Amino acid sequence: MSLSYNSWIFKVYCHIFAKKVGKDNYGNTYFENKTKSPKNNFRQRRLVIYSGSVEASKIPQEWNAWLHHMTDEVPRNNANKPSWVQDHVPNLTGTPYAYEYKDKKDSSKVKNIYSIWKPK
């Protein structure tokens, strides 16, 4: 089975056996299963269908808390956020935009023994 075949089956499953709860600013759609089961500690199962590539870091903090049953309140997209909360940034590791540490030698130090490890 290919990944696209599995995702198509998962989308059909969500629309039949779960109810749509909401959508975030990034296009991800969230569902909640209609039944409670002992497999999930008698809690409703919460599911997400990603828009675009499947990457867990694309889920904002408030929806992540809802998915993991930290809160039962469904997040609102237009909720007032405190000024210190930053916008969600996806994980860029392994992409050309990943952070790259630059080794800066400081001549004012007596010993500069730290450097970036480079395999031979």
Structural class: alpha+beta
Number of strands: 3
How many helices in DSSP terms? 2
Strand count, sense and closure of the main sheet? 3 strands, antiparallel
What would your notes on this structure say?
It is a single chain. By secondary structure, this protein is α+β, with helices and mostly antiparallel strands. 18% of the residues lie in helices and 18% in strands. A three-stranded antiparallel beta sheet has the order 1-2-3, covered by helices on one side. The longest helix has 15 residues, at 3-17. The mean pLDDT is 80.
Which SSEs are present, and which pair or pack?
Layout: H1 3-17, E1 18-23, E2 29-37, E3 43-49, H2 61-67
Question: Summed up, what is this model?
Answer:
Helix content is 18%, strand content 18%. The protein has 2 helices and 3 strands.
Keywords:
elongated; 3-stranded antiparallel sheet; 120 residues; alpha+beta
